[in-house]
Automatic annotation (TrEMBL):
Name this protein carries in UniProt: DUF106 domain-containing protein
Membrane topology per record: Multi-pass membrane protein
Subcellular location field: Membrane
InterPro entries in UniProt: EMC3/TMCO1, MJ0935
Length: 181
């Protein structure tokens, strides 16, 4: 498997994560950011949520899940990720066969660990494109739902748990359809 030059760096991911934290922390203090986000999201996502809270939220979650999946597909080297996962699967199968041999197990685990950092670097590339927009979206979500009285979806879920549960469902579906590793 050729991974030369494909490992990349964590630096862009760390920069985006730090910028996201700064935005999240200063959301209430920097009104121009909040106002700019409101100008974009109030007439789009806000209209959907005002139309029908549950269906609007489902549409938004489905759209965001699709967007993340497409970005994941094109921002990462799918071929290399697939090869690495295949190699890890082979090592896991081999490890199952030698469970009684601790020495051989350690050797296989060491080999398997070699894939962890490169796989993480490849997988995290999409965060560079989605980190800041999603922090802005989530801050807007929080403000929107607090303003309308913190509603419950399906009778018991707050917006964050609703988002998490349905984004997992939609992402799984879209990842299968688009063949994203």
């Amino acid at each position: 498997m050729d991974t030369q030059g494909k490992e990349g760096s964590f630096a862009p991911v760390i920069i985006v994560m730090l910028a996201s934290l700064v935005i999240a922390f200063f959301w209430d203090k920097l009104e121009f950011i909040r106002n700019w986000v409101n100008v974009i999201l109030d007439p789009t996502a806000g209209v959907l949520l005002n139309w029908n809270l549950t269906f609007g939220m489902l549409i938004i979650v489905a759209f965001l899940s699709l967007l993340i999946t497409v970005i994941q597909k094109y921002a990462t080297d799918q071929k290399t990720l697939r090869e690495m996962k295949e190699e890890q699967k082979k090592l896991n199968d081999e490890a199952k066969k030698v469970r009684d041999n601790p020495e051989k197990m350690m050797e296989i685990q060491k080999e398997s660990m070699k894939f962890m950092v490169p796989m993480m670097k490849l997988s995290m590339r999409a965060l560079v494109f989605t980190g800041i927009p999603f922090i802005l979206f989530f801050r807007w979500f929080n403000d929107f739902f607090v303003a309308i009285g913190d509603p419950r979806f399906l009778g018991f879920l707050n917006w964050l748990f609703f988002y998490i549960i349905f984004s997992i469902i939609f992402s799984s579906i879209f990842r299968k359809i688009l063949k994203v590793v």
